Amino acid sequence: MGNSTYKAAYSLAVRQRRKELGWSQATLGDLGDIEISESTISRIERGIVIPSHRILDLIFSKLGLNPSNLVTSYITRKDAALQRQLDDLDIHLAKGNSAGAEKIITLLESNSKFMSEKINEQYVWAVKVAYNRIIGTADEKILEMIPKAFPLIKGISKKSMETMFFTNIYFNMINIYISILFSRGQRDEAIDLYYALKENTEKHCADKFERGRRLPMLIYNLAECLNLMERFDEPLNLCSEGIELCVDTGFLLLVPNLAKIEAGCRLEMGQEEDAIEVYRRVYYGLKLLRKFSDAEEIKVYVKTYLDVDL
Question: Residue 3 above 50 pLDDT?
Fold first, then answer.
């Protein structure tokens, strides 16, 4: 597909979704601490300009759409090499490979042209936050870093989230921020923010893929925190919702984790038979996902504490 067809595809998607939401071009261009002029949004919608991948990701994230549904535009070899670095970095972070992530972060920081753009600088700070979580950096240090990736975090509240949108990077930053609040004892505030983030995500993510990529992990984090607070009824409902969402969107890796929280809650509520049945589903689900060591851990736990053979 040539550039003209690609431009027509994304420009139509942006224009149609903006009108569905009843937004002006100025509203769409207000991306928090980064602003795109109304005239630029107009040119994007008319297919006159091709924005960078990161700007397009910001716009599509605000619209609740998935930019990867469109055919990627033609880019230069130099840009393609940079994109490969970014893709490799995401893979290293997802796999917890701190050495590989650190190497690419160093390369990006040495690229003065790349770092000269504010959006790229914020991206690098975001991956540094994720990297420092992997290597176990103290929460206080990470809290100092998060505003450099997501400046609006300083004023974040349940109320402010009602009108905010979050790109994938911002979504990950606020997830980390809330988890740190919870671990530091600010539990009620953290729970309120988790629920607000969930509501925000459900409101803005029109794309099925984006919902599947964001919501299950958010629901898992929220359910786990509620479980620790012994608010067992809420995790039960959340886990059922999360599992259904995982199945519907094809993101199955979190299904056993959600079911494990559900089983634990049922056990605490005296529903032992139901808990055993859920543990059984977790056990076989882990085996299907070829997570044999995790499956064996569940089997040993149930035998040790419930004297039941799965």
Answer: no
Q: What is the mean pLDDT of the chain?
A: 85
Helical ranges in 111-232 per DSSP H: 112-115, 118-134, 139-149, 168-183, 187-204, 208-228
What is the per-residue pLDDT for 80?
67
Region 36-51: mean pLDDT is 79
Would you state the pLDDT for residue 8? 60
First to last CA, the chain: 53
Q: Tell whether the model's pLDDT for residue 109 goes beyond 50.
A: yes
- Residue 83 resides in a domain: no
CATH number of the domain residue 8 falls in: 1.10.260.40
Q: Is residue 20 in a domain?
A: yes
pTM, 2 dp:
0.76
Q: What angle do CA 169, 174, 177 make, to 5 degrees?
A: 130
How far, in Å, CA of 178 to CA of 218, rounded?
10
Amino acid occupying residue 288 = L
Strand, coil or helix: 29: helix
Q: Tell me which residue of 131, 37, 34, 145 sits closest to 89, measured CA to CA.
A: 131
Measured distance CA(192)–CA(156) in Å, rounded = 11
- Helix H or strand E encompassing 34: strand 34-35
- Expressed as residue numbers, the domain containing 38 is 3-69
Three-class SS of 236-262: HHHHHHHHHHHHHHCCCCCHHHHHHHH
- DSSP type of residue 117: S
Would you say residue 2 has pLDDT above 50? no
Type of residue numbered 156:
I
21 in a structural domain: yes
- Total number of domains in the chain: 1
Question: Does 8 fall in a domain?
Answer: yes
Indicate the pLDDT class of residue 220, thresholds 50, 70 and 90. Answer: very high
State how far the alpha carbon of 24 is from the alpha carbons of 11, 14, 28, 48, in Å.
15, 12, 7, 19
